[in-house]
Amino acid sequence: MAGVIESEIGGVFVPVSNVEAARDWYFRLLDRPIIGEILFGHLCVIPMKSGPALVLDSKGFVGPHCSKPAFHFNTDDVEAAHRHALAVGAAHLSPVQDKVFFTLKDPDGNLLMVADVPPTPRFEGGN
Length: 127
Hints:
The strands form 2 sheets. Strands 1-3-2 form a 3-stranded mixed beta sheet, with helices on one face. The protein has a 3-stranded mixed beta sheet with strand order 4-6-5, covered by helices on one side. The N and C termini lie close together (10 Å). A hairpin with a 6-residue loop joins strand 2 (43-46) and strand 3 (53-57). It has a single domain, classed as Roll (2,3-Dihydroxybiphenyl 1,2-Dioxygenase, domain 1). It has helices at 19-29, 78-87; strands at residues 11-15, 43-46, 53-57, 72-74, 101-105, 111-115. By secondary structure, the chain is of the alpha/beta class. Helix content is 17%, strand content 21%.
């Protein structure tokens, strides 16, 4: 019998202080039109091209993820991505490290990463 909890991540939560402002900032960072309704007054779900959605959540905000990035955004051109992050005013932008990744902070201080790394092989089992 297959398990009821699947081997699939549906969303990655990012704590934010103001969900509307965070939504606008993330859409600018991703160079996408600003769309997406605010759900329940505190959530904004931003679909990605693949993988889990980014879920911005302002309910009970007590502070950012700041010691290690909780996830990374993919890129196939880390230098161009770095220039874009600089152009949109990303805070605490690190230099490109090992020619593969850089980190930055969103307006709430969440530590993010942008990386040019090979995709992770997908789990092909039952759940």
